[in-house]
Amino acid sequence: MEPHKAFLASSFWLVLVIFLTISLHGVNTSNEVHHVKTHVGGLVEKDQRRTLFDTEYGDISSIEIKGGHRAPSYHLQFFTLEPNSVFLPVLLHANMVFYVHTGSGRVTWTVEDGGTRRTDLCEGDLFKLNEGCVFYIESNLEAERKKLRIYAMFANTDDTTYDPSIGAYSRINQLVKGFDIKIIQAAFKVPGDLIEAITNKTDTPAIVHANSKEHKTFWELEALVLSDFLGIPSNDKKGKTYNIFDKDPDFKNCNGWSLAVTKKKLKSLKGTNIGFLMVNLTTGSMLGPHWNPTATEIAVVLEGEGMVRVVCANRKNNEDKMEECRNMRFRVKEGDVFVVPRFHPMAQMSFNNDSLVFLGFSTAAKENYPQFLAGKRSVLGALDRHILGTSFGVSNTTIDQLFASQDDSIISGCVSCAEEEERVMKEEERKREEEKEEEQEKEQERARREEEAKREEEQARRQQEKRERRREKEARREHEKGKEEEEEEAEREREGGRKAHRRERKHVERREEEEAQREQEQARRQQEEREKRREQESGREKEEEGERGRRGGVRPHRRGDRGRSREEGAAEWEQEEARRHQEQDGDDVEDKGNRSSF
Ligand SMILES: *[C@@H]1O[C@H](CO)[C@@H](O)[C@H](O)[C@H]1NC(C)=O
Ligand SMILES: *[C@@H]1O[C@H](CO)[C@@H](O)[C@H](O)[C@H]1NC(C)=O
Ligand SMILES: *[C@@H]1O[C@H](CO)[C@@H](O)[C@H](O)[C@H]1NC(C)=O
Ligand SMILES: *[C@@H]1O[C@H](CO)[C@@H](O)[C@H](O)[C@H]1NC(C)=O
Ligand SMILES: *[C@@H]1O[C@H](CO)[C@@H](O)[C@H](O)[C@H]1NC(C)=O
């Protein structure tokens, strides 16, 4: 190897390393698209986009959209670069077709046979990048300082498919950093600390300012290497761009114009399933009802506001509520995206006070020829009038009249059409809202009733519990009261018993006392009697002694007689006493029996 070439070769590697250094700083990845919401049918407003990168020098947002639940989904990205900024290199995973909406700049990409290509970009350019290339985009610093706005659609065909799991592209720093330092060092044949310096960087934005120091170094070296080593002039082969505004529209009248870009017109669209169209409706105009027989149309509103009416291709045969196809009206404004599946007739309208400009990416492997309902090229107009009349249930003449004044315009004046559509839409929305509210109210009412029923049940249950508790308590209290009463009764009884007993005892005592008194009295009386008798006897004895003294004594006999009678009296008394005692004891027994029977 010649020394000169060897030097260049080493400087090429150096450039690659620096190239990587710039972008190798691992930022948020663009391939975290796994759990992204895919919008099905209808409208995706600007603020519903997902932000992929948001930096000081620009931002990138995306949406996933598909025409129906079973339709393939499409990925769109919206690049906005401040003037004089760079979207750092990425490896592209799927064919990408993009339209430059505002601003200017250039895109640089690698090609398979080595080296890079670049092309300048300006407003209205339509461009395609092939999957597998590494590309980056710079924005110019214009006098008007317009931002570079790019709307991109990624292809979705069998052989080149946007894969949500890996995203639309990956930043090259991520690709390199996935390897161990050793491997990278071996591959690049550079000192380890150089690699470390690269891998140590963790946070660089996806979009940087063009005049940053790193960036300058990058450009200087790139220029050196490309021109000297690869023999490619730095201002290398220019890719051709296709500018919408350089071409004559397919259709144009005072109400607007439309242009479709097919593979025939732009060869680079071959190999993608993406077609392009652009429509500009002046105030109070309409792109007549039409459908796409082979393509789903994904439109991005570029300017103004308008209304879109989409009629469902088949409303009745759908059993799945989820997939139910609805006729739709939506109001669109700049930045909104709307999708219309194939075979769904649609019409776009502008308001009386504003024009409506939108681009459309159509997805079709084959050429797509939009079919219009009305006009000279009407698909219906080509049918037999009689058959058509029968189909509509009207006479030939009605059909004749219907097609009497057809010209070949597809865009026509439609004053206040958008306004009317909006009115109907709002009306429908209001109705839906009301229905929803009604439904909600019903739901709430139902919930309330259920709640109430539950509450009542609960209350009833609680009351039942309370009652039971009360009953239990009462039962317990009664039981206790009963016991108390019993006790009281018993007490009373005991008391009563005691009293009775006392009474009795008193009675007995009194009786005993009386008895005693009586006995005493008796004893006293007997004593007195005895004494009296003794006195009388002694008096008589004295007399008898006096007599005996005169006639002799019979005293012992009489004395014995008298003694016997005295003994007899005492026994009698004792007997009487015992009987009385017995009577008393019987009373006692009777009392006791009564009490125990209680
Ligand atoms: C890389 O980071 C490690 C630890 O964070 C540090 O020790 C090392 O010096 C850094 N290397 C370079 C080249 O900056
Ligand atoms: C669309 O048409 C209007 C009115 O003719 C015009 O002012 C506007 O610049 C056009 N927009 C584009 C993008 O062509
Ligand atoms: C144009 O008219 C529509 C409907 O009447 C209205 O909602 C909108 O704000 C108007 N736009 C402008 C730019 O005046
Ligand atoms: C309608 O047209 C068919 C054939 O074109 C003709 O046979 C038929 O008489 C027409 N009917 C009327 C009511 O004009
Ligand atoms: C107990 O006394 C009551 C009156 O107090 C009387 O009716 C009843 O017959 C008596 N019982 C007995 C067993 O003598």
TrEMBL record:
Keywords on record:
Signal
CDD domains named in the record: cupin_7S_vicilin-like_C (cd02245), cupin_7S_vicilin-like_N (cd02244)
Keyword Protease among UniProt keywords? no
Q: Name one Pfam family in it.
A: Cupin_1
Signal sequence segment: 1-29
Q: SUPFAM superfamilies, per this entry?
A: RmlC-like cupins
| Domain of life from the UniProt record | Eukaryota
Q: Where is this region: Disordered?
A: 426-598
Positions with biased composition (Basic residues): 551-561
- Biased composition of type Basic and acidic residues is found at 443-484, 506-550
Record's protein name: Cupin type-1 domain-containing protein
Native species of this protein?
Answer: Lupinus angustifolius (Narrow-leaved blue lupine)
